[in-house]
Protein 1
Amino acid sequence: MSVLAYGVPIWLLVVGLYGIVTSRNLLHQIISLSVVQASTSVLLLTVGFRAGAAAPVFADIPATRPAVDPVVQALSLTDAVVGATVSALLLAVAVQVHKRTGTLDPDALRRRPER
Amino acid sequence: MSGLEATVLVLVGMGGTAVVAVRDPLRQAMVASLFGILLAILFFVLQAPDVALSEIVVGAVALPLMILLSLAKIRGGSR
Amino acid sequence: MNNLAPLPVVVPLAGAAVVLFAHAFVPRGVVRLLAGAAVVAEITLAAILLYQARSSTVVYWFGGWTPRAGIALGVSFTVDQLGAAAAVLAGIVVGAALTTTPTLGDGDGDGIVHALFLTLLAAMAGFCLTGDLFNLFVFFELMAVSAFALAAYHTRSLSAMRGALNFAIANSIGAFLFLIGIALLYGRTGALNLAQIGRYLATHGGLDRLAIVALALIVVGLLVKAAVVPFHFWLVDTATSAPIPLVIVLAGVLDTLGIYGIARVYWTAFALPTGGAPALRTVLVATGAVTAGVAGVLSLAFQQPRRRLAFVMVAHTGIILIGVGCLTARGLAASAVYAAGDGMVKAVLFLGLALTGWQAAGATARRAGVLLLAVGGLALAGLPLFATGVGKAAIEAAAARAGSGWVTPVIVGAAALTGAAVIRLALEANAGSVATGDEGRGRWTLPLAMGVLLLGLSAAVALAGDWAARAAARFTATRAYQQQVLSGHAALVSTAGLHLGLPASGLALDLTAVVLAVVLGSGVVAPAAGRLAGTEPLPTVWRGARRLHDGSIGDAATWTTIGTAAIALALASGAR
Amino acid sequence: MTPRVRRVVFLVAAGALAGVLAWGFGGLPRFGTFDGAYGQILNHVAVPQRHITDVVAAVNFDYRGFDTLGEEFIFFAAVLGVALILRTQRGEHAGHLADHATGRAVPPTSDAVRVLGLLLTPPAVLFSIYVVTHGHLTPGGGFQGGVILATGVLLIYLAGEFDDLHGLYTEPALERGAAVGVAGYVAIGLLGMAAGTAFLDNVLPLGRLGSIFSAGTVPLINLSVGLEIAAGLVLLLTNFLHQTIVIRPVVGRSA
């Protein structure tokens, strides 16, 4: 079943990139980027998973009980914060773009082929 | 791998696809929120409650909220 | 003795918090003073680290978590001479950049701007000093977030908004690819410390398919930051529209750090296991050469001054990549000298550009700006007085030794073309026909002094070739690095008798490039040359190039995907 | 590139990328069998060494606390960035009023929503305090708690008018709150240096395992992070609200 566990992150990466590439709306593009971010979180956690093991929280389980990897979880927490902050900044820029131009179509933002 | 893990993984894959496939931003914000909940469930199943909790507060609440606020501005301003 | 290691990062971070706390109720002058003090402190602390690392690498474990039985439990800083020198350079460039904040117009958000420059500086210092792969990613992101917040400063300019969007999306894609690479390596080695990853890979099966794909993803993430072709679209847009102070940092040090990151990751984690080096060398040198060639030509295809300088930046990053891409200590030393000198000169270009438009400063400021641009143009072409000339000759020599002598004409051509583009800009500015849109106000002598200082430093770095050769020998001593980080035993690397050298042929090529740049740039010899530089010799190609760089985010993401796939496939096929 | 060309080119490149990624991912350990030394060692030693029952918190705030410091500054920089990008600029006041004058119909907040919002706020605040203070014991911590707290504050907005919030805070106060939060994290790090060991060394008494007052500096870091995230996120969302407020009947300090 590794195919599924490692295939889903690849799928999310490609789908998210597809969304960014084909998007006709900045908000859509920004949300698609968060799908790319999700792929990294899912991969981190599937990599660190151990079948049958508990969560690495020893509040009410014995310390000897096998637990899944805690490090990938810490990394994916940081990853989630990074993803959300980037989205916030991008949304703020999108609001400004709309205020200036009245459109959110990324292709409408293209520069005229000037010098 | 148990059936539960496989099921949730497939749902997350489909959820991500749906987020990208929905082209209307308002609807997309809601689908993204659902996707956040799916991710949180997956993280919970993968024994990562810390990450699941943060995914709920960020992916399912804070981020969609920001998107909705941006949308409110954009819809209001476009008149 | 090594208690200071965290401070070049911690002091600017604390400075950013203090600036944000105070900016609403203290005068603007105090905010600038605070930020300036934090920058000076960072430079001083990094310089002390540079001194402390003179004989061996300084290892610092955060939280006091020294490794147990060769397994790192915490995060380490691993300070060597090249890393500390890069942290010093970052501070100097940020210091120079802050003198141009008067170009920000009415100066609203002044406190926030200064706080963001401090987090940016802290991130660059941390990126240079860290010995941990994930920590490298954290600073990579802190750099990116600080920088693209600043890139969006001119919110009324659509071009600036487009630049910020392009910047943020491209760098985020790069960062996520980088992170996938980290996850793969962690799955394979169970480690995040670079030394530990390297030792594990070397003793447990070497570079298998997973390690190769991970290497490809990490390299791509860092190449996006370095903005080499075909990952350069974001930089072209950002350099055209971002505030001058940020562009100075981008040109002076920020995009070069991507290449520094490749060198760091390669020599700590991937240098020992055999099998990867030849393919990686081919990929990096070819990417560098394509970048230098394409961007060198395109630096003449655009009229807009900043856009022209953007391609100059990209082309020179390509030259730096060629030296590092040789994957030899010699190539690294050459690139280090070149990158330091070249970064300072590129920063000077934007200082000069800002001065040409300085308001109410009259003709003197404009002439000073023109002078900075002209001298900068000569230096970029490779005038051997500056580190650019010495470093370029050394890169050519290192490439020839590594079996890639064919890059020499590309490097010389790129240097001549970019030099010409800048000289032409200087002449136009002299005639008063350059509109930058970044009119500064107030004291213009400070940016001028910074420009002169940076040119002087760039000349001084030209003398540091032998020092760089020794520092690079330590930087590339992978086994000694791993031993020191994981077991705490300082391992001495013999660096006696190492020289960078300056071959006479390289000197001759430098001068050739300078002459070519002057001829092309001024159009004195043949009006045709001037036309080549100014108008449309190949209308279709020129138009095509411009259309390709129309700022489309979707296009940039497509190119990133193409580049990633190509690099991963090249490394994969080279490994079999 | 035209959209059509771009799509085709992308699909080809993405197919190649997915293929080479799949080839590389095949080198990972089989799903569910990962046994990395780093994580397993921490699972065994973190509880006795640090008196922290949530090992993820131990990694975040102790073993790899320096990463998290960087993460907090990433958030900090993003909050500053949003404030910078959405700052009110000269000449925008008129634009806002004009927006308002065009008279977009605004549905008044219904009483049900108002009551619900007000009813939900106290539990959200209490829950956030619980999540922050138990960060070293159970899942959660400064980050999650801070976000919940900020959301709780926003409920007040949903419940009533934007003006209500200005009795609670001003933007400079939020900036200072975020600054104190991150500065607190740095200060806790310097505590270790002052004690003669290393930056972010956990030098405070570790306390009894499982108690709120245990795990040394970790709960303090969680408090700093909670303050920073809550203040920062409210500031961030307020900046977005300033952009939307013009379409509500009551124009606050938005201009």
Protein 2
Amino acid sequence: MSAATLYGLCSAVLIGLGLFGLLTHPQVLRKILAFNLIGTGVFLLFGIAARRGAAAGFGGDPVPQALIITGLVVAFASTAVAVSLLLRLFQETGRTTLPSDE
Amino acid sequence: MRLLLDGLTILAVGAGAFFFLAGTVGLLRFPDTLSRLHALTKADNLGLGLIVLGLLFQAEGLFAALKLIGVWLLTLLAGATVTQLFARAARNGGSPE
Amino acid sequence: MALDIFLGLLVLGLAVWIVSTRDTLAAAVEFVAFGLVVTLVWVRLAAPDVALTEAALGSGLTGGLLLGASTRLARAETATSGERHGAVLRLSAAGVCALISAAIAALVILLPEPAPTLAPEVAANIAATGLENPLPAVLMAYRAIDTLLEVVVLLLALLAMWSLAPDHLWSGLPWRPDAVGRDGVLTFVAQLLAPVGILVGIHIFWIGSVAPGGEFQGATILAAMWILVTMAGLRDMPPMSRRWLRVVLVIGPAVFFAIGLAGFAIAGSFLGYPPSYAKQLILTIEIPLTLSIAAALALLIAGPPERAAQ
Amino acid sequence: MAEFMLAAAGFVLAVEAVGLIRILKGPGDADRVMATQLLGTGGIAALLLLAQAMDSPAAVDVALTLGLLAAFVSIAFVFGIAQSRTGGA
């Protein structure tokens, strides 16, 4: 098994773990953290696609790598918006959790 | 010459790794936050310094060597000052010990 | 390979910990540690540009943002740390997530051999951009529209954040911590670290054309240093209504867009660069773009206006 | 030589990982704050070793960036803790 496949399996577990955290934590901040875990997992998938495409003297395919950089910036922007939404929720209601519908 | 430089590198990097280990042992064994802080920052910064020293023997060119030293100086400066802040936070009731 | 297995286990271990810790603050610290290990993984995957972005943005700035939020919400979070959804929901969520993980893992194992790659095309066309590092070449030429829109996304995110402010605070100043905890040491750190950091940020931006680095990585470091100076109380953030601030925010995408339009005339397509001075044009875009990105990132960290402008 | 560097990087990381577990258990916030600094130093050492072992000089720039941002995160955290303790939120 190559290192790329190893990290690919790692990213598969990471996406599952992140999704689990996103679904099961009532605290919004924990959901945001879990969302970032999913993001990292997805970026790692792109990363192994890039690594497997190493050719022409490059250690990895630069196109998926460039997509990851774009993705990281957008993930940061959405995290920042989510955090400010949470802070607003806290100021308005004094709560930091989303109640479950059960 | 090559062999001598490689030997020096192994010696210095090995010593550096040892200090990282020492830092962690201190962290596990020391009883309170402030002394753990001692163990951690001093040993780790020394460990990093030794590793940088070891890598200097392998450095290609002056700029690469200066950059390595720069990384260490930056870590030292940041570490020393940030540790001061940690210690204050700990003293102001960060730890019940 | 042994190192890769170890790094993979470390990543997964930290991820499990982040999801399962009760204390939110501890989870945020673990996230910073997680980002650091992921940075090492990017180096192992021969993606140093991505490693730089992860170290600066994914771990550093995002970590700082989440830590800041969790300390601000520490009391409320501690009160709800025991709150959990019911066992049925947790179990079914675990099942669904395990299925999704298994499906992705199967996909990873069944990836086609040999892997499809665009690397040869990049190698064949990189000379036309005048750059030596393939990533900025892809970001600024082949996928230039993505990059332009990405900066627009940053500005839109900032607008979304600002619009969360109550009406009377619109065009006010972002939240600022009290002077508590701010003292000589913090001032000293900021005075010492900020100039060094600005230098490193410019260095990372500048080497981008020949080695890993570039506008996003450089801008992130600049943004972090701006926030550091604000935290230390050396300079306050400007009110949102400042004209210069808004000019800095839009100048990068504006120059980018203008040169893109000029591409119709000089190279026959939107964002086309004539090969003879492609590098000069890309640099002309990148310098204002770095300033705009740095300002947008710093303001996203600072948050919506919460104080009225004096 | 490359194998030795990789092994040393792995060793430093393993040692830091053990330390991290200790630190994250607390008991105080200050202990947790130390985690960021601990990992910062260890991560920088590992990156420098990797740069040499994998012949990828860019990893030194990554180490430089990491050093700066680790300090930034630590400061933000210490400052945030001081704030939350005085009810500044």
